[in-house]
Design a protein that fits this description.
heterodimer; A: alpha/beta; Rossmann fold; 9 helices; 10 strands; B: 386 residues; alpha/beta; 2 domains; 63% helix; 8% strand
Amino acid sequence: MTEQAITIQDLTKKFEDKTALEDLNLQVAKGELFGLLGPNGAGKTTTINILCGLVKPTSGIAKVYGYDVQRETMKVKELIGVCTQETAIYPYLTGFENLELFGNLNSMDKNLLKERSKMLLTKMGLEGDAKRVTGKYSGGMKRRLSLALALIHDPQVVFLDEPTVAMDPQSRHAVWDFVRDQKTHGKTIILTTHYMEEAEELCDRVGIIDHGKLIALGPPRELIAKNQVRNLEDLFIKLTGRTIREEA
Amino acid sequence: MQFQRIFALAKKELKKTIREPAVLFMIFLFPIVFVFAFGASFGGVGGSQTVTYQIGVVNLDHACSVNASQTLLTSMFNSEILNVHLYTDNKTAQNDLSQGKVQAVMIIPTNFSEGLASYQAAPNNPSAWTNATLSIFLDKGSIVATQAIPPILQQTLTSLTDKGQAANQSPLKMETASLVEVKTVSALDFIVPGMFTFASIFLIMMVAQSFTQDRENGMMKRIRITPVTPTEFMASQVVAYMSIAIIQAVLVFAMTYALGFRPNVGLPAYAFAFVLVMIFSLSNVGFGLITATISKSASAATGLSFLFVLPQLFLGTFVGASLSSGAQVAGKFVPSYYVTDALTSVFLRGATLASPTILIDLALVSVSCVAILVVGIVLYAKYYKI
């Protein structure tokens, strides 16, 4: 059995005349919290979409727990949970019903589903709103529920695509605590973000991606020390000549 | 295929229907309001186009010194608005009537010529006449037939005796018999079969909106990340919308029943109606998917869905009864036409479920609806992943 949760070899994705990913090579160990950093349009979401089986790569190989995402998509889908960049929840269902739906889509046992729904709603601070339709939730509440949906079936690998975008500091720290908690339970977490402080705070290793290419890879403190910069934000400026929030 | 996933998605779709006010109105309240409004106020035939009525004739007359039945038939054959079909027996004629092949059947009695001869012998002595009565059976599924045909035949009959002779001053009389045992046939009875069809048509809009909305807000992507297979997903949609179609049919039936619709048919006829509406809902899911394929947004889907809603509505339901003959021919290219026709045959014409016209309608509805659903799924899957 492979020790790698994620294996990416020579991965390239082209959209007509635009190259979103170019010969990306990356490995993420089981239980690792890995940050994929870069500005908007760098190729982070494309990488996640390929790993989830949503997008077909132009060339190269992507594997999750040793399963090829193109040929063994169903096996991969059973292992992963994804918190998408969009706050994707059904507004006409309650918080609990949204969790119940996605638990059923992942073939969960009824009792286990109830138990995990309750636990996740409590951890996300939504237990008092579980029976309200989510159309009436605030933006932060929707984001937290969206994260809970990704985790309802207790996946081995969790992809969090910009999970704290547009969150207030309190909600953001609550999510950080929850992400750390997942790591202590042995889950592999792939976090994409353009908040450098978030990556520094949470990640075991980070990969900085720009124009579809991996330009730096390693533990945050190691990268900072090696490049003699104060933080990851400065590292990105040093490597690309731009700030991470500028358009690529 | 896992039923847990299919039912979870179908349940979600049903909750959406109940909890989203716009959807609830369009799918359930609008048809009910429409049925009530039409049921309460619909009347008149409308249209001024020239039509031809299909009349079946069973001639039992024994000619004597005069051949009255031949004179009557010649007069009918010469009429531009009557197309006469001769039958050798009443059973075959009634069978064709129940299947909508003719709009009326006229039985010429054995003593018809004798009646006319007695009149000609003593035109001013009614006590010497031999009374003969023509029996007319009308297509109860056609408001046109029940309202227009009796006066035309009465006029033809009257022409055999003196011009302008009142019917009660002649031994030759006409009696309209009811094929279906209802006391009165109201305008409501004629439009109810179309109403069953009508309600389900708006599923097209709902399906199109649902798919485009889920695409826009990222839900389709989220579902694709789960282990749900495309087959399970589409099966859940079919289950959900068939369920909605059944609920609609129940509501329409309840409303029309409350308004006085009492067809003289048994439970199998109702079961057939509900099954037919369920099958018909497949075409609406298919048209909804086609609409969702060509629509970039949910608002565009709402507008574009009328490309399919309107033809089904105007050409295939009760609305079509008052359209031009050209439009009625065009109606034969939409599935709703055959649903309405089959329900009319069952509820109003008294056709049996095993009769050829019902079986043909059922076959056409089934084949066309499944074909439209398949086309919808293939097109949607080609341009958007499921």
